[in-house]
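Structure ticket #2291
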Amino acid sequence: MSLILVVDDEPDLEVLILQKFRREAREGRFAFHFARDGVEALERLAAAPETALLLADINMPRMDGLTLLARLQERPDPPATVIVSAYGDMANIRTAMNRGAFDFLTKPIDFADLDATMAKTLRHVGERRAAEARRLAAERAHAALARYFSPNLARQLADAARALDLGGQRRDVSALFTDITGFTALVESLDAAALAAMLNAYLTGMTDIAFAHGGTVAKVMGDGMLLLFGAPDDQPDHAARAVACALALDVFAESFRGGHSAKGLALGATRIGVHSGPALVGDFGGGRHFDYTAYGETINLASRLETVNKALGTRLLVSASTVQRIGGFQGRPVGDLLLRGVGQPLTAFEPLTHDRVRTAAICAYQEIFARLDGADAGVGVAMARLAAAGDPLAAFHAQRLAAGAAGRLIDLR
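Resolution: structure written out below.
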């Protein structure tokens, strides 16, 4: 139903309008309100802001129609206005149109012409309001999606013309988990305001890096995050993106930790795990809450790799499944990990930056690691020598070799 406000001081016009449009009113197409001048019209609009069309005379007491037009333009969403007046000279018409009138009709009223003009005007109002509703919906969608997706992807998802399928689907993805070591203990010792400020700054920096690499923030769990690459949009290079993102996150997290250490705050290292494979991804929010996330063994293994860093002395671990999807991966082997609840050993690697992978220490590690599967009695000593130079992963291997373990199979069950 379209609400129409008729503004005219002629006493008989209300009866005439209601009679001429009685069928439309009875069918629920139109509902009419009436005002005697511009002042009363503004009061009526304040009470019924949903008014779609205003039919206004020019010559009225207290506030004339042209002044009313000017006042209407001060409103954020003025109704479409058609001037209906006996003063149909060009000066009044130009003034009315310049002040925002949609159309101008002259008296005496030709009701067939009025009916056609009203229909045309209401179509325009409907189209304008529909466009505004789409714009507001897109803005709300973008605001919600921007929490999870990079700005460019959020705009694409909010665009109804390019809507991606957010329903449950299986995709080949790379999952990246992060977690701050010892954060729970830190929570107990910090002032709430200081903790909130620090955590917000940390998560903002981490999220910005994730978005810069095209990642999706699927979960934020306190200080931990789950990032997805390869969903919801197709990313053939999702594994490479995930590893590049992991390296950038590590640089940021270490810098962030160092800055707070200088202030006397013992913030733990950020551990990161990455695994690639099939996962069930989609919006699992139940219709009331947008919750784009992923489930499956791929997600679980990424989480397990993040946790395993603690035992190995590393900060970054990626699986062989991820490495196999990347041409020219730069890093060093860690070993074949036997994990509780996982049937097969999970081969893991530590990704390294371009400058570090070429250092003498890393080259020496690569050479010693290659000797693990042989009957080389000196491998434990060589690994211990690297450990003494400050390599935590070498220290882990040296310790297990000294305890009688052999080979690259590492039992962490």
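Closing remark: The two ends are 69 Å apart (CA to CA).
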